[in-house]
Amino acid sequence: MFSHLIGKPLKRYDISVFENYPPEAILEYHHHRDLEIEFQTYRLLKEKASCQESENPVVASWVSFFDEVLKAKEDLEMNLDNSFLPVLGPYYYPRTNTTVFFTSYTPATECVNATDLQYLCSLAEPPLPNDKVVKHYQSIKKLT
Question: pTM for the complete prediction?
Answer without folding.
Answer: 0.77
